[in-house]
């Protein structure tokens, strides 16, 4: 209980019996337990033009009852408005895919932003959980339009063609000074074309292509090592690694150096769908197609690698 005596605030009283002077003391009760409120769903436009209806559930507690009474008149209403503004500002910079797959990370980011505002009010937010009501409009098509077809890969999926085109262009750039070297060395695009006779590249071809997209900024974002156990259609199992814990990162066949942070298990088909953008890590995990041994949050950081591959295609 916060008591004002002749306009002067006194030290917090209670819990228990508190003596008040009639006509002199004015008081206000403050609940120190963890409470919650919801941010009503509002329409937002994401970075890629999608229109969504997004709300949030917020848990908070008062840690300084004096500040909570002196600084704001309606604590919940003010905090709700602060949370809504922070949510709107953050989601406008995200694509629909990022919002759907990184809700936990976005919630943690919002938690820090809201607490920066509310700490001077004697209030601390413990949790922010985003809730997507509906996707009112899908993302807009890229204004650049589709890439032209790659010679020799007509009829294949456009995503495979784009990946092959990127690999082929990188190979040409590295060997522009020696035509003989290009003729003697089979470019990755040709390897993908060979592996795509079945419709999609094999696990070996995909993991070889992944190395082209590794970089120090990506390692800084992920900072983890992954062991990937693949079940082939024949029933055999192959082991690969994606090390994004140091340097510019490494990927290849076999076990990673040291103990991996996360072990992933999936079929070759699911690996193909994952790296070609037809399957999302979170959807694969929720449907049981992706088995995770280790921290799920660290496992979902592989989304950063998939985004890097998509951007550079």
Description:
With 313 residues, the protein is an alpha+beta fold. It has two domains: 107 residues, Tetrahydropterin Synthase, Chain A, CATH 3.30.479; 155 residues, Nonspecific Lipid-transfer Protein, Chain A (2-Layer Sandwich), CATH 3.30.1050.10. The protein contains 13 helices and eleven strands. Strands 9-8-7-10-11 form a five-stranded mixed β-sheet. Strands 2-1-3 form a three-stranded antiparallel β-sheet. A hairpin with a 2-residue loop joins strand 1 and strand 2. Helix 2 packs across helix 4 and helix 5 runs antiparallel to helix 7. The radius of gyration is 27 Å and the shape is elongated.
Sketch the topology as an H/E string, one letter per element. Answer: EEEEEHHHHEHHHHHEEEEHHEHH
- Major sheet: arrangement of strands: 9-8-7-10-11
Strand content: 15-25%
CATH superfamily of the largest domain: SCP2 sterol-binding domain
Largest sheet: 5 strands, mixed
User: Which residues sit in consecutive blocks of at least 5 with pLDDT less than 50?
Assistant: 142-162, 164-198
**Mean pLDDT over the full residue set:** 77
Structural class: alpha+beta
How many helical stretches? Answer: 13
The radius of gyration over CA amounts to: 27 Å
User: How many strands in all?
Assistant: 11
Protein name: Stomatin like 1
Domain Band: 1-144
Family: Belongs to the band 7/mec-2 family.
InterPro entries: Band-7_stomatin-like (IPR043202), Band_7 (IPR001107), Band_7/SPFH_dom_sf (IPR036013), SCP2_sterol-bd_dom (IPR003033), SCP2_sterol-bd_dom_sf (IPR036527), Stomatin_HflK_fam (IPR001972)
